[in-house]
Hints:
With about 180 residues, the protein is an alpha+beta fold. It folds into two domains: about 1-80, 2-Layer Sandwich (Alpha-Beta Plaits), CATH 3.30.70.1280; about 80-175, 2-Layer Sandwich (Alpha-Beta Plaits). Helices cover about 35% and strands about 25% of the residues. The protein is built from six helices and eight strands. It has helices spanning about 20-30, 55-70, 80-90, 110-120, 145-155, 165-175; strands at about 1-10, 35-40, 45-50, 75-80, 100-105, 125-130, 135-140, 160-165. The strands form two sheets. It has a four-stranded antiparallel beta sheet with strand order 2-3-1-4, sandwiched between helices. A four-stranded antiparallel beta sheet has the order 6-7-5-8. Helix 4 runs antiparallel to helix 5. The protein starts with a strand and ends with a helix. The model has no long low-confidence stretch (mean pLDDT about 95).
Amino acid sequence: MATQVVLLRGINLGSRNRIAMPELRDLLTSAGFEDVRTYLQSGNVVLSGKGPSDEVARECERQIAAHFGLDIPVVARTRAQLAKVVRLNPLATVAVDPKRYQVSFLSGRLTAEVVRKLEAAAAPSEEFVVAGREVYAWHPGSVARSKLWTLLAGRGLGVTATARNWTTVTSLLALAED
């Protein structure tokens, strides 16, 4: 079984899509995953599972829908894939605040048209890099007021996307390596 990092999109934001982490851990364990651990309350799971990360993500979606009655998109990466994301870190020289440095994890690659929309939305002070199925984005002014962030967080990318700040990304890698 490979160590996988499973990222749930849009849970525990205010009063909607509430999922208790102990219940999620129990659910995924009963579904056959092993060594299930969660990080924070925002849908970050490290587990051991069979199959490629995309299959693990789909199984987690099915389990969540059946148990909680929620349609929660899930993106997953193997420990090795997440380690590569951290090693690449293309904005390391400019992204000085890890809370304003986001990585969006995508279920597939973005089209050239979507990348052009992101370029048009980015403020002059913002930078982003599309690298395979990840988008690294630096929002020096504010994540909350960023038009780029609004597009990255929305559903108009043509693929499932969920983002984590740099602190969470590196903490998940550390948890996956334990």
